[in-house]
Design goal:
With about 270 residues, the chain is an alpha+beta fold. The longest helix is centred in the first third of the chain and has 49 residues. Strands 8-11-12-13-5-6-7-9-10 form a nine-stranded mixed sheet.
Length: about 270
């Protein structure tokens, strides 16, 4: 009799545990289904929003519109010709997203719209803080006769040369001098020492990135770059560099260059 009661208790306990596990699994399935439904509803809405007119000819044609069902989502910068009140599909997709995501969004703190200033740039409405930094005219009129080369790493972790061209002499690695030209050059570099002048241009280098920096956080990539070394060995050399910026301005300067004595940077 005792064995029968023990067995019955074991079966009852096992059944209760299994039931609780099944309830937990069912709750997880429902949660996953709800999350999937919310995701799909948001994707459908965002796909519609991304197809709305954002082209422009002047900044006065642009407006920031908060159209996402999620109050924490950023504004969409659109042409003022678009009128949300006339877009029945938008209202339907907003309603579906709010219903599908109500549980997910209910546990978050309330969000206030983030202010954004729209501008028209290259035919499209964009946030003003996306505009490339302006380069003062005086920054491009100077010369950059002092250059250094130190060992660096390419974006894919290959070894590279880090060239910096400055208006005045500075220590290797001194990033406080502006304006300057900065180059990370990893492909198509010459064998040292040079036995004849070496010239390389945009499109010919196996790999480099070049920036013209008028000030801190005011760097832009030029449209064209030409670099010439008339002399170069393991200690340094001389040459000239020419940049054509994206606004058409040209920066051209002769330079002398020295190799930095710092320890090579480990890459990879």
């Amino acid at each position: 009799m005792g064995k029968f009661i023990a067995a019955s208790l074991f079966i009852a306990t096992f059944a209760a545990t299994a039931s609780r596990a099944e309830d937990a699994n069912e709750a997880k399935r429902r949660q996953a289904a709800a999350a999937d439904t919310c995701y799909n509803a948001k994707m459908a809405l965002e796909s519609h929003l991304l197809g709305l007119p954002a082209s422009c000819k002047a900044t006065r044609e642009c407006a920031a519109q908060y159209l996402h069902a999620d109050s924490c989502a950023p504004a969409y910068l659109l042409n003022k010709s678009y009128v949300p009140e006339r877009d029945a599909e938008l209202r339907l997709l907003q309603t579906r997203a709010r219903r599908a995501c109500a549980a997910e969004w209910s546990g978050r703190p309330a969000c206030a719209p983030t202010p954004v200033t729209p501008v028209c740039h290259e035919g499209r409405c964009i946030p003003a803080d996306w505009l490339p930094p302006k380069i003062p005219a005086e920054a491009t009129r100077g010369r950059f006769p002092h250059a250094t080369i130190s060992e660096g790493c390419a974006p894919h972790d290959a070894a590279s040369w880090l060239l910096t061209f400055r208006p005045k002499k500075a220590a290797c690695g001194d990033d406080a001098v502006y304006p300057r030209i900065a180059m990370n050059w990893w492909g198509g570099r010459p064998e040292l020492p040079l036995t004849r002048p070496f010239r390389v241009k945009s499109g010919e280098a196996a790999g480099w990135t070049v920036s013209f920096c008028a000030a801190a956080r005011a760097c832009r990539q030029p449209k064209e770059v030409e670099l010439v070394f008339t002399e170069l060995d393991q200690s340094g050399g001389k040459g000239k560099v020419r940049l054509v910026l994206d606004d058409g301005r040209v920066v051209e300067t002769p330079f002398t260059v020295e190799f930095c004595k710092d320890r090579p940077m480990p890459c990879g």
